[in-house]
Amino acid sequence: MREYDAIVIGGGSAGLAAAISLHKEGVQDILLLERDQELGGILNQCIHNGFGLKVFKEELTGPEYAERYVNEFLERNIPYKTKSMVIKMNKDRIVEYANEEEGFVQVKAKAIILTTGCYERNAGAIALPGQRPSGIITAGSAQKYLNMDGCLVGKKVFILGSGDIGLIMARRMTLEGAEVLGVAEVMPYSGGLKRNIVQCLEDYDIPLYLSHTVTEIIGEDHLQQIVLQEVKDFVPVEGTEKVFDVDTLLLSIGLIPEQSLAEQIGIALDKKTRGPIVDESYQTSVEGFFACGNALHVHDLVDFVSKESTQAGKAVAKYLRKTSKSEHAIQTIATKGVSYIVPQKIHTDYDEKHIDLFFRVDNVYTNKDIVLSSNNQVIKRYKRKHLAPAEMEKIVLPTSVLQNLQGDLQVALEVRES
Amino acid sequence: MYDVIIIGSGISGACIARECAKYQMKTLVLEKNMDVASETTLANSAIIHAGHDPKPGTLKAKFNILGSRMYEQMSKELDIPYWRSGGMVVATSKEEIHHIEELYQRGLENGLSKEEISILDQEEIRKIEPNISDDVLKALYLPTTAITYPMEAAIANLENAMDNGVDLQTNAEVTSIDKEEGIFKVHTNQGDFQTKIVVNAAGLYAEKISDMVVENYFTITPRRGEYLVLDKDVDLVNHVIYPVPSKKGKGILATPQYHGNVLLGPTSEFVNFSQSKTTSSKGLNDIKENIKKSVKNIPFHKVIRTFAGSRPTPSTKDFIIEETSVKGFINVAGIESPGLSAAPAYAIYVVEELILGKHSFKKNDDFNPYRKKVHRLNELSISEKNKLFKSDQGYGQIICRCEQVSKGEIIDAIHRSAGARTVVGVKHRTRAGAGRCQSGFCQSLVAKILAEELNIPLEEVKYQGQHSKIVSGKTKGEDCERI
Amino acid sequence: MKTLTCIACPIGCTLEVDIHDNYKVTGNQCKKGAEFGRKELKNPTRTITSTVKILGGKYARIPVKTSDEVPKEKIFEVMKALNQISLKSPVQINQVVLKNVAQTGVDIITTRSM
Q1: pLDDT tens-digit profile of B386-437?
Q2: Bridge partner residues of B226 (DSSP)
Q3: Is B298 helix (H, G, I), strand (E, B) or coil?
Q4: CATH of the domain at B94
Q5: Residues 6+ positions from C61 with CB-CB distance below 8 Å
Q6: Which domain holds residue B401?
Q7: C3 contacts chain A (CB < 8 A)
Q8: Partner C contacted by B483 (CB < 8 A)
Q9: Domains of chain C
Q10: Chain C residues with CB inside 8 Å of B471's CB?
Q11: HSE-up of B470 (CA within 13 Å, CB side)?
Q12: What's the mean pLDDT when you consider all of chain A?
């Protein structure tokens, strides 16, 4: 069986950045496996702009951003296979993939990086009541049909969920000739960027219904109508039903890290992120398995995906060189106002100067402090003017701060009045 | 001119068609939907009941045990999923214990042996079912309870019937039936068909069909059941867990499925025909509340799908399997639970007693009881998969990531007899799209394969029903400009 | 005083623009915001990203964008022009596929090669 130094599963933004980073660090024996017909991942269908402001200091469309990483990847001649689906892996780091040329192949690696991206939450998962006709589709799937196949999934559209994908598709469908009747959001605030509310909804007079949700699907073969209802504390309010005649309901109700492979070998998953629990090297709870990008936790900006994955690549290169590791690790604990932190564990012999801590808050906040403390003693404070669940935050923590921690092995982030 | 026309391609029509194929009967199955077995057979608990439950002396009791004992053999011949999970009826009070003791006696009376029915105590229950609720005191244990995949069971019977000479016409809704000089003329929206014998196996619509020929003597009312489907990695129950039954039916169960999911449900509620497949937030909440009585530690956040179907509940409270006052017109109606379990048995009864009792047909010596093996790659070893791959490269292209279904399997499902014509049809034959992402990744790929194999444009590919297109049309056309 | 959200970058600052004081902008965190506030009220513009038909390529459509912002009121006129285009593969990234779309002085360029 062919053994590699590293196998990267997924050739989207995360996989490309991780592989390039590994290669830069001198690791040559890499194999990247991508299930689609080309590299680039989800960016290939994200034809709108807003990508690259942090990494390239320019505003690029998804395909432009992807092409830069794909070009660098190809220039480095890193071995890869497309149209190849990884279907199994085990704790001995044997990976089974399949494609039309080779059939089913097993390969082994010293390190495996899971950059499998994420999948969209769907109607079944939210138990949408009513019938089950055609015409109900996730926004990402509709985006693929539209931007790659040139097919409109419908002409009279309603969108459930005000996350960025839903907002982008509201504009996109309108430009291509559909009528978008509205966007419903169950929370009292939008899940997407403010700029998208303006340039995707307000520009086209598409109403946004906050604190509303779809409570019934009507239509036998094909969708005919949806019922929109106001909600209070997530409970539909009687008497507020509004019926819309539509042929399409786009769902933009959340993204979930794609980790069925991780589940095959019992990699520990974080209940909040639904991705693996990792340490500062992006290593999961199973030796030799790493994760980064949307497969680790869902990002809003691909720039952060690239940065995180570049770090992960460096860390994996180090892992391949190192022989021993400290067992002593501290946990990062998300408390008041914070939903989760990645990485969830930091080994105290971490020798880089800084460590990136990514986190999300659980509500919209203005003028707050992010407080790091341990053993009830405040270590550091960071000021933030505006925080929202839809906007992932990053703190660059000097590692020296972690060296002198006594007793309590917890680093907590709190959102407190400033 | 046909000898037998069977109206309905659910589990009843399918099993009867296969029995007809064993004789030299020219047989036609008429199905009003685009795909077969898409109504009650599609949406139920998939359980082959042991036979403890029906009232002794009824047709339900007679055919339940006979039928369920035939499944193992049938599953081997027709390559149908069959898993003897076992089941238990749990009692949470003294009154309920009394009830299961009555069921025990009833089971014996219906013909179950002492190895097939027994009572377990608290310790014994928890050894084999750790997630049973703390309130459960005793259980009626039924080791012969089994799980199948009902739509596949129906498809397999139909496919085998067709491979042995039976005809199938889908998209054919029966509009009226005349009888003239001993011949029935069955009018459909696909044309008229003539036959000597009509078997009405039309499920929810059996009353409607019967009334076309005979004076009304029963009613069929849709009794809807809603379900929650849990993801595959949920390790909740090992057996079918039944609560103590009530007048409303068997109650809300926790049922492990053949492919690893768990079904919670069904509810039981009389509804209009237009509501027969509709889920409701009340119904789904009822499931959550009631199932807690029997099972604990239920991961409700792992629900991946909900669905509903309706039993065709008869006013007679028992199966209606008989030749009517109109000679040659046979009703197979009111097939609610334990219909799935009983079907192989009453299918034989319909053909060998009701049909052959009055008409003579020679045996079909060329009848082949086996259908071509269905390749399910996710059940094979890597060398078995590569063997298949050598015969067809399409087996190496994985289309559905969640269920690991290859292009080769999908193409096979389209081209077999009673093959898939729709996206949901592919799902039910191959599992592509039945996983946790619910076809988010694979739907467009499956639709493209259907378009290619059926030689139709992508815009014509259907989701499930005749009017259920996947995409409305191409962009950059004349109708794509906003005014 | 007009309140609006800046869309120049993903932050989305809330701007206050005083139309009686030479369109002075407050609330912005950068220069782009000041420019945006003024322009949005005087002559709002947008970048359009879309796709055009392509034959012989990997997909049926190739993504494109306007090389610069165009007046907001011309969005659908630009879309109409895009719907007339049909390209033939191979096409390079950043290739001009239509000059001066809808008399805006702005070009349509591809955002990937295919």
Answers
A1: 999 999 999 999 999 999 999 999 999 999 999 999 999 999 999 999 998 8
A2: B308
A3: coil
A4: 3.30.9.10
A5: A147, A148, A149, A150, B475, C51, C52, C53, C54
A6: 377-460
A7: no
A8: no
A9: 2-42 (no CATH), 49-110 (3.10.530.10)
A10: none
A11: 31
A12: 92
Question: Cβ contact (<8 Å) for B396 and A100?
Answer: yes
Chain B CB within 8 Å of residue C80 CB:
yes
Q: Which of C52, C60, C83 sits opposite B481 (nearest CB)?
A: C83
Q: Is residue B475 part of a domain?
A: no
Instruction: Specify the amino acid at residue B361.
Output: F
Q: Which CATH architecture has domain A1-120+254-323?
A: 3-Layer(bba) Sandwich (3.50)
> pTM of the prediction?
0.93
Cα distances from A303 to residues A43, A300, A308, C10, in angstroms, run: 12, 9, 9, 12
Q: Name the CATH superfamily, with its identifier, for domain A122-253.
A: FAD/NAD(P)-binding domain (3.50.50.60)
Regarding whether B391 and B301 lie in a shared domain, the answer is: no
Q: Closest chain C residue to B483 measured between Cα atoms?
A: C76
Contacts of B306 in chain A (CB under 8 A): 124, 127-129
Neighbours of A296 (CB within 10 A): 31
Q: How many helices and strands (H and E) does chain B possess?
A: 13, 23
The verdict on B384 and B344 lying in the same domain is no
Structure tokens at B278: 């509709």
Ordered alpha helix ranges (H), chain C: 31-42, 75-84
| Domain stop point among B295, B311, B327 | B311
Q: Do B226 and B175 share a structural domain?
A: no
pLDDT digits (tens, 9 = 90+) for A342-360: 999 888 777 788 888 999 9
**Who's near A2: CB < 8 A, 6+ residues apart?**
A107, A108
Which residues of B does the annotation mark as catalytic?
49
Domain boundaries, chain A: 1-120+254-323, 122-253, 325-418
| B412 plus B438 within the same structural domain | yes
- Answer whether A134 sits within 8 Å of B462, measured CB to CB: yes
Instruction: Establish if B412 belongs to a structural domain.
Output: yes
ipTM of this complex prediction, to 2 decimal places:
0.94
Per-residue model confidence as pLDDT tens digits over C30-69 = 898 999 999 999 999 999 999 999 999 999 999 999 999 9
Q: How many CB atoms lie within 10 A of CB C67?
A: 17
